[in-house]
């Protein structure tokens, strides 16, 4: 993996539009049954326009971006801020770029800036990963 | 305002069996196409001892306790006003199907911004396997909307 350097871009990952089906499936599989993501009546009562995506669903997409690029066994740290709510029908694209080569716990690692963006360019998740080289 | 005297509260830890079917369902729900997360033979061929849990799966272990997000009850939160602010994982090993993971959780901090319009609840969670090895730690910030 000597070809990984500052500026190396991760292969992008674009997901199908977020649907109610996506959210129902993720609620069941993830165990996150918060009704704000699956019950429109509940979401509207809470002042939201409708149900919206679990932040952790988008983070799981970012995880796929990372493990498509390097094996999961090399992932040391994975963090993000949930910057904007992902609404129904939004199309998420995940991207990332190596921004620094660092030593992390005595290991040579890449620090990778990652993000999830909506179709209009809004960043919904802004994060970082440390990946061993 | 949220009760800051609860800072430092240690929640009861609990054990979760990581089931193969659950991991396959999770992989399906996130549209995973990499065979190592879906097909046990592919996982073993790739050097895993069983199906691996994807990077964000520890958050799903949090959901398997006696109640969904016990901090909701501890702080009397209205779940409709809770948003996820940040999430961080540090990994020390790999969680696989067949493992039994003990989840421990602590209320690390409570602070507010915008004159109390937004309050932040920071949790620290750890995931230890059946051999007593720490596999991962997570830091979670929940945002509570008071407006």
Automatic annotation (TrEMBL), chain A:
CDD domains linked to this entry: SAV4209_like
Pfam families according to UniProt: MaoC_dehydratas
InterPro entries reported for this sequence: Fatty_acid_synthase, HotDog_dom_sf, MaoC-like_dom
Record-annotated MaoC-like domain positions: 17-111
Protein name (database record): MaoC family dehydratase
Automatic annotation (TrEMBL), chain B:
Matches recorded under CDD domains: R_hydratase_like (cd03441)
Residues annotated as domain FAS1-like dehydratase: 7-136
Pfam families: FAS1_DH_region
Record's protein name: MaoC family dehydratase N-terminal domain-containing protein
Record lineage: Bacteria, Pseudomonadati, Pseudomonadota, Gammaproteobacteria, Alteromonadales
């Amino acid at each position: 993996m000597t070809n990984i350097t500052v500026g190396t871009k991760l292969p992008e990952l674009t997901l199908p539009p977020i649907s109610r089906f996506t959210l129902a499936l993720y609620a069941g599989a993830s165990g996150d049954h918060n009704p704000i993501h699956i019950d429109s009546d509940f979401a509207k009562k809470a002042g939201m326009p409708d149900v919206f995506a679990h932040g952790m669903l988008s983070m799981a997409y970012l995880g796929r971006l990372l493990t498509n690029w390097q094996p999961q066994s090399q992932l040391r740290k994975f963090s993000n801020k949930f910057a904007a709510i992902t609404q129904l029908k939004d199309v998420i694209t995940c991207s990332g770029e190596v921004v620094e080569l660092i030593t992390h716990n005595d290991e040579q690692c890449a620090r990778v800036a990652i993000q999830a963006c909506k179709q209009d360019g809004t960043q919904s998740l802004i994060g970082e990963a440390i990946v061993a080289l | 305002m949220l009760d800051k005297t609860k800072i430092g509260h240690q929640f009861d830890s609990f054990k979760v069996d990581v089931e193969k079917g659950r991991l396959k369902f999770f992989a399906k729900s996130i549209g995973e196409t990499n065979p190592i997360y879906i097909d046990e033979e592919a996982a073993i061929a790739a050097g895993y001892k069983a199906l691996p849990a994807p990077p964000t799966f520890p958050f799903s272990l949090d959901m398997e306790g006696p109640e969904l997000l016990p901090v909701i009850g501890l702080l009397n939160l209205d779940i409709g006003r809770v948003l996820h602010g940040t999430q961080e994982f540090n990994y020390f090993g790999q969680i696989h199907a067949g493992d039994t993971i003990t989840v421990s959780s602590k209320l690390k901090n409570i602070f507010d911004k915008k004159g109390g319009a937004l309050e932040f609840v920071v949790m620290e969670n750890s995931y230890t396997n059946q051999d007593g090895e720490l596999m991962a730690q997570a830091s979670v910030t929940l945002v509570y909307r008071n407006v």
